[in-house]
Specification:
With 110 residues, the protein is of the alpha+beta class. The chain has one domain (3-109): Nuclear Transport Factor 2, Chain: A (Roll). 30% of the residues lie in helices and 44% in strands. The chain contains three helices and six strands. It has helices at 3-16, 19-23, 44-57, and strands spanning 26-34, 41-42, 62-71, 74-82, 90-99, 102-109. It has a six-stranded mixed beta sheet with strand order 2-1-6-5-4-3, covered by helices on one side.
């Protein structure tokens, strides 16, 4: 699978709220951070817990891909996120950095 394929597969798992499938696309030592910041989450267990909580709080949460750019081992996704059908959506840019065939770091621009 290419980085773009993996980015799409993890987005599909996110939208299906399938935490196990989502986590399969990340390294055990994944890091999540705001752009150019120190990571605010490290490790797949923390990542799993965050998404179990997110999907429990927002069972209709989903992200719509607006655009994607692939540069080597990085994928940049511009997404519109809907927490509930009635809430105002918000946009994020997610920069996925890969190690092998898994995502090792995500930097978010909000």
């Amino acid at each position: 699978m290419t980085p773009a394929d993996i980015a799409q597969a993890q987005l599909d798992a996110y939208n299906a709220q399938d935490v196990d499938a989502l986590c399969r696309h990340y390294t055990d030592d994944v890091e999540i951070a705001d752009l150019n910041a120190t990571p605010n989450l490290k490790g797949i267990e923390g990542y799993r817990e965050r998404h179990v909580g997110l999907f429990g709080t927002f069972p209709q949460n989903r992200a719509q891909l607006l655009s994607r750019i692939v540069v080597g081992a990085r994928v940049v996704d511009h997404e519109r996120v809907y927490r509930t059908p009635d809430s105002e959506p918000f946009e994020v840019v997610a920069i996925y950095s890969f190690r092998g065939d898994r995502i090792a770091r995500v930097d978010f621009l909000k």
